[in-house]
Each structure stands twice: as structure tokens, then as C-alpha cells.
Amino acid sequence: MPLRLPDRLPAIDILKHENIFVMDETRAHSQEIRPLRIVVLNLMPLKITTETDLVRLLSNTPLQMEICFMKLRSHTPKNTPVEHMMMFYKDFDELATHKFDGMIITGAPIEMMDYEEVEYWAEIREIFDWARTHVTSTMYLCWGAMAGLYHFYGIPKYALPKKMFGIFRQYPLSQALPIFRGFDDSFFMPQSRHTEVRREDIEAVPGLEIIAASPESGVSIVMARGGREFFITGHLEYAPNTLDREFRRDKDVRDDVELPVNYYRDNRPEAGPVVSWRAHANLFYSNWINYYVYQQTPYNIDDIR
């Protein structure tokens, strides 16, 4: 079954060229199916790119899903046309009375700031608290993951001596969990961050479980509340060329930019990337939708508590 997306969302045409089955709202309304409702709080500067990355992964399931995009009332994006935001995004205030089967909260390019210094921190905290009673399972990504761990559990973040940048091998620590069903003994995850959360802080908090980690990049996935919350420090959703774009952007303005680790063929940017994370990324999102959203959420969405 396809995803139900807003009419004329740019991701529709992009993904149709990749032979991914998507359906706009006009056609979807003719089907008598209770779709899963997924809301995405997209804090990334390049909204359309992130929309496409996430929709690509969410599409790899037989379940029909209705995707909704949320924006902040307290922040105006600078890198996405106002027309796009007005057409496809709704303020939190408009969605606060609704309930959703699943939610994804993305990263944001503000990780070096203290949380309390972020202009929209008060609204983010309000949304985090709202998600606990209005969403069956929420996935927090990168800065979103660190912010969620800090808000709910007091887990601090630490500045890294240099950017964690590249593709790093991860190891599932609880392979019996449904989220890892079908996984190999290890998998790869893109990382692009200047801060980290530490194992010892997380292990000291009851209710938090580190379920995947790397000897090189540290904690990668934390689970809480029996799978109602997942905190992911990396970017399984990244497209093949995302790290390449970041590398070329940064090296043009700074002189301390290193090659992304384990990314380019023979470590040569001109040779292009080796995509080593796509299969597990699709499997991870499919497992999340199936086992932690679809099989846990009530048929009557208003019964979510």
C-alpha cells in the first residue's frame, strides 16, 4: 500500500521516479481504509530534502500511512520557501488536539548551543510532552534525540574534539527486540554531529536502554517506555549523497574539514560514495512502523494515551 501525501508535495514526483508507490490525498480519499497517521516535526534547514528522505523510508511497508508535517510557531525557516511551508506544514497549535500513531522529530543545526539558549526550546518541550500522550511511538533523530534525552531524563550532551562524520559500524545489543528483526550482527549508520551522549549517563537512568552502539561513534540507539520512544543519534534516513553535499559545502568555507569516514570509494570524493546503510535503514523503519506503531496503536486513534 502507498503513503498518503499532501497533493503536490515535491517528494511525490521525486519518489515516483524511484519507482516508489505514493498516493496523493485526492486518490487516497476514495479508499475505505483507516491509515496510520504519522506526523513529522521537521527542524532541518533543507525541509524538502528531509521530507523526501523520510518519505522514502516510510514507503517501504504494505501499510497505508497519512503523513502530516508540523512546524513551529516560534521559528521561521530561512532555507525553505514560505509558500512551501504554508502549503504543506501546520503549526503545532493546529495539531495539538489531534492524535497520531507515530511521530518523527528530526535533528536541527543548533547542537553547539545550550538547550535553554535555543529560541524555540519552550515550544519544543511543549511538543515533547504532548507527544507522550498523543502519539503511540515517537522517533527522535540526532539533535532531536539528544534534546529528548535531556528533557525527559536529564542526559547531558558533550562537545566532541572533532566532528563525528561518516559511516560507522553499529552493533545491536538486544537482537531479540522486534526493532532489529531481520538485522545482521552489525549494521552501518551515517553520523554527522559535533556532540555526543555518553553510555555511563544513560545507564544510570532507570527506564533507558541502549540497544545499539559503536566502538567508534558511541551510543547510537536508545529505547524507552517499551518502544514508545526511540532516540537515534545518527541518520539512517540520509540519502547516498547527503554526506558528500555536507563535505563539499563545509570545505569551501573552512580549512579543518576532514573526509567522511568509510564513505567514499578508496577515500576519493571524485569516486563517489559506497552506500552501506540503505537496506538496514529500510528494515529499521519498517520494523518500527509494524511492531511499535501498527501493532500497538488502537484502532480508534482517540484512545491513544
UniProtKB/TrEMBL annotation:
Major localization class: cytoplasm
Site (Important for substrate specificity): 192
CDD domains xref list: GATase1_HTS
Class of enzymatic activity (EC top level): transferase
Active site positions, chain numbering: 142 (acyl-thioester intermediate), 235 (proton acceptor), 237
Gene Ontology CC annotations of this record: cytoplasm
Pfam families tied to this protein: HTS
Pathway membership: Amino-acid biosynthesis; L-methionine biosynthesis via de novo pathway; O-acetyl-L-homoserine from L-homoserine: step 1/1
Subcellular location: Cytoplasm
Keyword Cell membrane attached: no
Site (Important for acyl-CoA specificity): 111
UniProt family annotation: Belongs to the MetA family.
NCBIfam families from the UniProt entry: metA (TIGR01001)
Functional note: Transfers an acetyl group from acetyl-CoA to L-homoserine, forming acetyl-L-homoserine.
Protein name in the entry: Homoserine O-acetyltransferase
